[in-house]
Amino acid sequence: MQSRIGVLSDVHGSLLPLELGYATLQRAGVDRIVCAGDVASFGPDPDACVAFLRAHEVATVAGNHDLTMCRPLDVPEEATEREREILQVTAWSQRQLSSESLAWLAHLPLELRLDDGFVCLHAAPGDVNQVVGPGDPKPFPAGARVVCAGHLHQPYVAEVGDRIWANAGSVSRPTDGDPRGAIAIATLRSDRWQVAIERLELPLDSLCERIRASGMPFATRVCETQRAASWW
Question: The pTM is what?
Answer without folding.
Answer: 0.96
